[in-house]
């Protein structure tokens, strides 16, 4: 029985994951202390990670001798500058509103479980005009360990009052899918081919929100 749909945000509700990813390479290059190229596969390690974990990966890829605190400070400034100028409406997957209507019509609860900071989540959902549509919104920063740890999904299901086996997670990253699968949810993957992401953990795959809606309708009938 389908009782809850839980969305990741970056890369699913809005196309922010690729936007950040496309600009991270230069940030890493500016810190790099070796002459080897950063491959697409290596850079893809950051996809789906929470903000506090990305600087650790940046330090590893760049082999920078800077203290992690300095790298973290610089990355946070880069992140804030990047997203202070983004037109989120322009990269909003507006067809999600069809899924929202489907959920409301069938008494299916809605939530967002994202590794991003709560302020970042709230801002994007507000700008896109859908924040009030969700029954629960949770950030990975609220936990000691974010995705791929399953705690965020277990906690979200508990707050929604549904069993994980009756909930579906819509995810794009390997870490997000692993988090949801380990927690016991069915996973619908939002197809992403511009970055090297392992999406093999998904139970179903959809290329856009319309296709994902069709998958959700079929799951509900099972």
| Strand composition percent | 5-15%
Quaternary structure of the protein: single chain
Name of the CATH superfamily of the largest domain: HAD superfamily/HAD-like
Tally the structural domains: 2
What's the total helix number?
A: 9
Order of helices and strands: EHHHHHEHEHEHEEH
Provide the gyration radius in Å: 17 Å
Tell me the CATH architecture of the largest domain: 3-Layer(aba) Sandwich
Describe this structure in words.
The chain is of the alpha/beta class and 222 residues long. The protein folds into two domains: 4-15 and 89-221, Rossmann fold, CATH 3.40.50.1000; 17-84, no CATH class. The chain has nine helices and six strands; from the N terminus they run E-H-H-H-H-H-E-H-E-H-E-H-E-E-H. The protein has helices spanning 16-31, 40-43, 54-62, 68-83, 96-105, 118-127, 151-160, 174-183, 209-221, and strands spanning 4-7, 109-114, 136-139, 167-171, 186-190, 204-206. Strands 3-2-1-4-5-6 form a six-stranded parallel β-sheet, with helices on both faces. Helix 8 (174-183) links the parallel strand 4 and strand 5. The chain starts with a strand and ends with a helix. The mean pLDDT is 95.
